[in-house]
Amino acid sequence: MIPLEHYLYISAALFSLGVFGVLTRRNAVNVLMSIELIFNSANINLVAFSRFVEGALGGQVFALLVIVIAACEAAVALAIVMSLYRVVKHVNLDDAAELKG
Amino acid sequence: MSDALQSLSRFLPELILMGALALVIVADLVTQRRPLKDSTNLLNGITLAGLIAALVTSWQALGVGEPQSLFASMLADDGLLGVLRPIFVLTSIGVLLLSMRSKELEGVRLGEMLALLLTVTAALMWMAGSVNLVMIYLSLETVSVASYLMVGYLSSDRLSNEASLKYILFGAVSTGAMLFGLSLLYGMTGTLDLYGVRAALAEGTFGPGLLFVVILIAAGIGFKIAAAPFHFWCPDVYTGAPTPVTAFLSVGPKAAGFAILIRFFYLGMAEPAGGGAIAPVGGADWQMLLMILAVITMTLGNVAALLQTNVKRLLAYSSIAHAGTMLMAACVLSVDGVQAIAAYLAIYLFMNLGAFAVVILAHRETGSFEIGSYAGFWKRSPLLTLAMVIFLFSLMGIPPFAGFLAKWYVFAAVISADLGWLAVIGVLNAAVAAFYYIKVLRVMVIDQETGPTPPLALSRLDVGLLVVLVVPNLLGLLFWGSLDRVTEYSQRLLDLG
């Protein structure tokens, strides 16, 4: 059987990749994809812990809810990106800087 | 099943809001083809009726009955939720009235906005009541996703869109980090229930790993209350969003964020130590973490506010500074801190909504949010200027006004917890804050306008709204007794002294 640590390594790696992507990518859609990585790293944690900790099924339910919420958030985020695109004709975050100070 | 039915009887305000939400959606569909004015009036009426019914029921439920956990220990109906419910509903009522007078929202179909407003109001109540990690995350995301849409409501406006995009990207990363922290906490303790977390943490020492988890979770909470260094979204979003939405964000989600902060740290990360005090468990020094956050948040908010020329941005930084002041009270580690936060939020609601009301009414006439455009207001509209003087003095914490009372609660709690140095930093910050509030007042009262100065037209509704917002600020000391009695309930947390 695969030990718990391996799942945690994977999830930590995914989380770090997600944060790295958020910090370095300049395209809004790429940033959204990185955010999905962060959510899914937490999901791996939840399901792995649920499997390895005695009598803790809550984690699987939590993971299902997280999938639903991540979908909602992605839908809303893409709608906002589309709406911004219609106004400014690009989705580059460096140029979305009308607001600052 | 019987548990769910029993819980529903203590869930009345939320149920009313859900009912009003369904009605608003249907009414919006039915009146799609009717003239905008008729449709807007009907929708505003339904929303207002729902909110008032929720206000009455939440007021009646306040302080009645013993604290009780609802829906299989997902939510707690206790003093903290009881006190915050009316605060949330009053915020939404204020925002609804402001949105009727906002120039930005004129000629826009408001059905979806009102549906979102009702959703967020109910979700804020879930946030304030949640005692389960799943519920904390779920309610926080419900509030967040609805707020993203409200911020970007003016879909043809570039600033509104940009603010919304910044908000959702920053929000998703913060809540993602929080979720990662929650999943690790679940792994450490093997349970999702806050009381179970506390019991598991009390059994062992977890050291630096737990502190890492706490910092990740603090990122999500800090994002909701706009605490530095998780505040970067705040000034941009406040500037770009339609002003009534800004007013809402600066009060409602902040209050609910503090409720989650109290529940997570006071119930999940600490155990009762007698006499209303609590003692952290698990070996993570989260009190120090909160103190650092409080100092950075206050100082950064106040110093950055000094440099602003846009009044919405100024109020954004001022709201960050106020979050820092409330964070000081969260460092107290006793029920006094909880009461101080509840009292602060109750007063902050009136002073901050008041300031935004003036900004919205001024924008109707001047069409600008620059502080410079307020020159000569004393001549153009003495009433509006006077109201702004009262709101800003209250925000400053000058004695006869209610804001002083709010600060007094916080400082009394901090000093009684032997955190004198924190109180000193707080007082210094309050002195810095006076500068930028007075800067606005100086422009309004002393500076002369160069162009023609027509008097500002205020409708009767405007004057009534201003009076309703001014009175609690002006007579804070008269209401002290009842405020103290009401906020005292907030200490009656489930299973905490």
Question: What does this 3D model show about the protein?
Answer:
The complex is a heterodimer of chains A (101) and B (497). In chain A, α1 (4-24) runs antiparallel to α2 (28-52). The model of chain A has no long low-confidence stretch (mean pLDDT 89). Chain A has one domain: Orthogonal Bundle (Helix Hairpins). Chain A is 76% helix and 0% strand. With 101 residues, chain A is mainly α. Chain B has 497 residues and is mainly α. In chain B, the strands form two sheets. Chain B has a two-stranded antiparallel sheet. In chain B, α9 packs antiparallel against α11. In chain B, 62% of the residues are buried. The mean pLDDT of chain B is 90. The interface between A and B is large, with 46 and 45 residues.
Main beta sheet of chain A: none
**Record field, number of beta strands of chain A:** 0
- CATH fold label of chain A: Helix Hairpins
Mean pLDDT, all residues of chain B: 90
Briefly say what this structure is.
The complex is a heterodimer of chains A (101) and B (497). Chain A has helices at residues 4-24, 28-52, 58-88. Chain A is mainly α and 101 residues long.
